[in-house]
Write a structure and sequence with these properties.
Aldehyde Dehydrogenase, Chain A, domain 1, Aldehyde Dehydrogenase, Chain A, domain 2, 6-stranded mixed sheet, binds magnesium ion, 498 residues, alpha/beta, binds NADP nicotinamide-adenine-dinucleotide phosphate, 24 strands, 7-stranded mixed sheet, single chain
Length: 498
């Protein structure tokens, strides 16, 4: 059971200890240079840990260890049913350690403890269980060739796989990659974000306990420009699976091209359009749900419905409701189970988010609510939920990903203009349309160029449904059985039986 009082979480926060060394070849080790970087909590600036800062030498060690493990078959050659049992052990251990893991996420990146206990950690355990359950139930194929041959079509693991992940759902974004990659028999190297490395190191400890053999799972904390880059450029990494910004996703394509043409999966940024039409009968419900999704996780969501496109006739009612909901998301102490909005990940990010308020003013948007920094006395990074009104789609706040609790209302004349504005973006991750007209719902969802469309809802979630984007939101899909394709090669074997 998770504690339900602030004082209980405070007490646990006072006694929790963290793993801070890198995890290579089944052991916690200092980085080769013995350098570290400091982790400060965005809750109040408290010093959490000094964490191993891995560079190229550590990357080489981890890749060599992962390669040895892959080649000798200690994991890759195990029967799927055996890998299943081990990953189920891991899921069980994650549930057993849920309070510590949830607290680590909250201290490290500032999200409300209610969210890390109810959403992040259960979803991580569920993800490992889901791929564990799936892996001994997927079959290979035999092609319908002439009688004289037997053509086998089989999936084989890629080999050594790296996962480079962001900080907004630190362990969950990692799990979406680790679970299918491990289930299919790969050896994996995880590089967490330097802003949220602690839960990944705890996971390494649980992985040993679960029975994942040495070398099969490695964790390299470090800086993106060193550790992430070295993995991207490594000649012996077969696949690199990245979640993060579009700019860094492009860098990984260059690294791949300049090195060994390693396979890539890129889950990148978004500027998701959310269309509320007058043909939806409950305007308030649509606006309430939209605001809840925009402010969830401090708006630090790749799928944040940050562009709310609304028909003129219902504009005022929508904005009024958004402002009401914003009040329910007043930032509070993330360790308090009643808090619905926590701290932004760090000082640098909070400053960047607040610069969008200045830009909104300069370009002539209205600020319906929010726009300021709050709780400064805590020493933490708190920004009010913010609604920009009368936004034009060419403004910077409508074009760039803010990744904070800010949403732009863009009024339009009709459905036609709504679709045109929705698609006028370089991104294509999530999108939504609210309407009770069946024909409009189908038409609009077909015309929107995005990997995910929600009709009369937002942010629905199930492991069985693929997740990912079109355009500069990347390629490849996380979650669902489709993700297994990313972590495997397709091999065809012709056998002459004539
Ligand atoms: P980011 O700056 O792109 O960083 C992501 C990861 O890449 C981190 O581990 C980072 O390490 C590393 N990295 C940074 N620069 C690098 C470089 N030059 N070479 C190699 N690796 C590098 O993104 P973020 O700020 O952590 O996360 C926010 C972004 O993630 C947003 O754009 C958001 O939309 C996106 N996101 C997408 C999804 C999705 O599924 N589509 C889900 C969640 C988030 P350091 O942290 O150590 O720099
Ligand atoms: Mg942190």
């Amino acid at each position: 059971m998770a504690p339900n009082m602030l004082k209980d979480w405070e007490r646990l926060a006072g006694t929790i200890s963290f793993r801070t060394d890198a995890f290579i070849d089944g052991a916690f080790v200092k980085s080769a240079s013995e350098r570290t970087f400091a982790s400060l909590s965005p809750i109040d600036g408290r010093h959490l840990a000094d964490i191993a800062c891995c560079d190229e030498e550590d990357v080489n060690r981890a890749v060599n260890s992962a390669r040895r493990a892959f080649e000798d078959g200690r994991w890759s050659a195990r029967a799927p049913v055996e890998r299943k049992k081990t990953l189920q052990n891991l899921a069980r251990l994650i549930r057993k350690n849920a309070n510590e893991l949830a607290l680590t996420e909250t201290l490290d990146m500032g999200k409300p403890i209610a969210d890390s206990t109810a959403i992040d950690i259960p979803a991580v355990a569920n993800c490992f269980d889901w791929y564990a359950e799936a892996i001994d139930k997927v079959y290979d194929e035999i092609a319908p060739t002439a009688q004289s041959a037997l053509a086998l079509i089989a999936r084989e693991p890629l080999g050594v796989v790296a996962a480079v992940v962001p900080w907004n759902f630190p362990l969950l974004m990692a799990a979406w990659k680790l679970a299918p990659a491990l289930a299919t028999g790969n050896s994996v190297i995880l590089k967490p974000s330097e802003r949220s490395s602690l839960s990944a190191l705890h996971l390494a400890e649980l992985a040993i306990e679960a029975g994942i053999p040495a070398g099969v799972f490695n964790v390299l904390p470090g800086l993106g420009s060193q550790t992430g880059r070295a993995l991207g450029l490594h000649m012996d990494v077969d696949g690199l699976f990245f979640t993060g910004s579009t700019a860094v996703g492009k860098a990984f394509m260059e690294y791949s091209a300049r090195s060994n043409l390693k396979k890539l999966g890129l889950e990148l940024g978004g500027k998701s359009p959310n269309i509320i039409l007058a043909s939806y009968r409950d305007t308030k419900h649509a606006a309430r749900t939209s605001a809840g999704s925009a402010f969830f996780n401090q708006g630090e969501m790749c799928t944040c419905p940050s562009r709310l496109i609304v028909e003129n006739s219902i504009h005022d009612e929508v904005v009024e409701t958004l402002v009401e909901v914003a009040r329910d998301f007043a930032p509070g102490n993330p360790l308090d189970p009643k808090t619905t909005m926590g701290a932004l990940v760090d000082e640098h990010h909070a400053t960047g988010v607040l610069e969008f308020v200045e830009s909104a003013k300069d370009e002539g948007a209205d600020i319906a609510t929010g726009g300021t920094r709050v709780r400064t006395e805590t020493g933490g990074c708190y920004v009010q939920p913010t609604v920009f009104d009368n936004v034009k789609n060419h403004m910077k706040i409508a074009r760039q990903e803010i990744f904070g609790p800010m949403l732009s209302v863009i009024p339009v004349e009709n459905v036609e203009e709504a679709v045109q504005v929705a698609n006028d973006t370089c991104y294509g991750l999530a999108s939504a349309v609210w309407t009770d007209d069946l024909t409009t719902a189908h038409n609009v969802s077909k015309r929107i160029r995005a990997g995910m469309v929600y009709v009369n809802c937002y942010d629905c979630d199930d492991m069985s449904v693929p997740f990912g984007g079109y355009k500069q939101s990347g390629f490849g899909r996380d979650k669902s059985l489709h993700a297994l394709e990313k972590y495997t090669e397709l091999k065809t074997t012709w056998i002459n039986i004539s």
